[in-house]
Specification:
mainly alpha; 8 helices; Methane Monooxygenase Hydroxylase, Chain G, domain 1; globular; single chain
Length: 247
């Protein structure tokens, strides 16, 4: 951040950037606690995460209001303007990450009395560790305005997508093997998708950091490893499709 002749202008910018940092820490905790609640079937912790989301919503509104006021009063140009616009974008991504953490917590409450496949729960835990690591790294890159590191972080999203695809396939198999698994596996599937989306929002933040520092958008297509849109349920061994039976 550049230093300005008007000290109050510097204070306004510092306030916005400090609140972004606080939002990032809050969003990280929400996701971490939501996944912990899912792993341990901790209903109380899940309810706490749901209640905490209101704080993140309030922080986003505060940042938006302060950012708009600063633009109106100071009429910033070039890098300063990108800093403020970037803060608005990043606060929106962090608010959505909080929403996704809250959604995971709500799933914990919904499946509180249902048994969950341990292997799949552990897979989701590992996937969340990747997403949280990516979020932490991108917030560190924002703190140091390291656009080179941000661009590197952006490429890591494909690993989270690939893990989501693997979990999606396993969940389909579990549901087909035993209909009693459908309720818990469906909620785990939504939880996994929420974690995959958290990775996407971390990637959005990385792209915003690059824009703030360079004044350019990243032109290359975002790497994707999610192949679930084209995936179909596996056919159980010994069964054939209806179309094949008529041949």
């Amino acid at each position: 951040m550049e230093n300005h002749i008007v000290s109050s202008y510097d204070e306004e910018l510092k306030f916005i950037l400090r609140r972004i940092s606080e939002m990032g820490g809050h969003a990280e905790r929400m996701v971490e606690q939501a996944v912990a609640a899912l792993i341990r079937s901790d209903w109380g912790l899940a309810q706490s995460v749901v209640a905490d989301d209101i704080l993140l919503d309030a922080a986003q509104r505060e940042i938006d209001e302060r950012a708009i006021m600063t633009i109106a009063k100071r009429q910033p140009m070039a890098h300063d303007l990108r800093e403020i616009v970037g803060a608005i974008r990043i606060s929106s991504d962090l608010e959505r990450i909080g929403d996704l953490g809250k959604n995971i917590a709500k799933r914990v409450i919904a499946v509180h009395d249902h048994a969950q496949p341990i292997q799949l729960v552990r897979g989701i835990e590992h996937m969340s560790e990747l997403a949280l690591s990516q979020l932490k790294e991108v917030l560190d890159a924002y703190a140091t305005r390291d656009h080179v590191r941000a661009e590197e972080i952006r490429t890591n999203d494909a690993e989270i997508d690939a893990m989501y695809t693997s979990i999606f396939r396993e969940l389909l198999t579990y549901m087909m093997e035993d209909p009693r698994n459908i309720t818990s596996c469906t909620h785990l599937l939504f939880s996994a998708k929420n974690i995959e989306r958290i990775g996407d929002h971390a990637t959005n933040i990385a792209e915003t950091i690059y824009y703030i520092q360079t004044g350019r958008q990243i032109e290359t297509d975002r790497p994707k490893g999610d192949s679930t849109p084209s995936m179909t349920a596996p056919v159980p061994a010994g069964e054939t499709l209806l179309a094949d039976r008529g041949r």
